[in-house]
Amino acid sequence: PSHPQRKPKITASRKLLLKSLMLAKAKECWEQEHEEREAEKARYLAERIPTLQTRGLSLSALQDLCRDLHAKVEVVDEERYDIEAMSGMEGRKKMFDAAKSPTSQ
Q1: CA atoms within a 13 Å half-sphere pointing along the CA-CB vector of 52
Q2: How far is Cα 85 from Cα 96, in angstroms, rounded to an integer?
């Protein structure tokens, strides 16, 4: 018994249209999430970082400020490096052990 060719439930053009609509919606959602993350980051930084006041500072005061900022950046870079180095399984154990040790800071 030969069966007549069944028509697809959805045409190829309709399927393509739906795919493009889904991609457009996904892109819109991703952009919205990205904007929200950027806004949250800006809010967080505004809360945590005081505004840098350089107006009226002498050359030596500006140089001192630059040295202080450079030292702070170095500390943060070292901490970031340490965290990245400990991100492996063994590193997580060391970090956990260091956190519960009373001699750690």
Answers
A1: 8
A2: 14
Question: Tokens 């249209």 — which residue?
Answer: 17
Q: Which residue has the tokens 């519960």?
A: 100
The pair of three-digit structure tokens given for residue 20, joined into one six-digit string: 């493009």
Comparing CA positions, the residue from 77, 96, 75, 74 lying closest to residue 86 is 96
Q: pLDDT digits over 20-55, tens only? A: 999 999 999 999 999 999 999 999 998 988 888 889
Question: Whose structure tokens read 């991100």?
Answer: 87
Determine contact, residues 14/21, Cβ cutoff 8 Å.
no
Instruction: Give tens-digit pLDDT for 49-88.
Output: 888 888 999 999 999 999 999 999 999 999 988 888 877 6
Cα 55 to the chain's mean position, in Å?
32
DSSP state of 8: P
pTM of the entire predicted model:
0.44
* CB distance 94 to 86 below 8 Å: yes
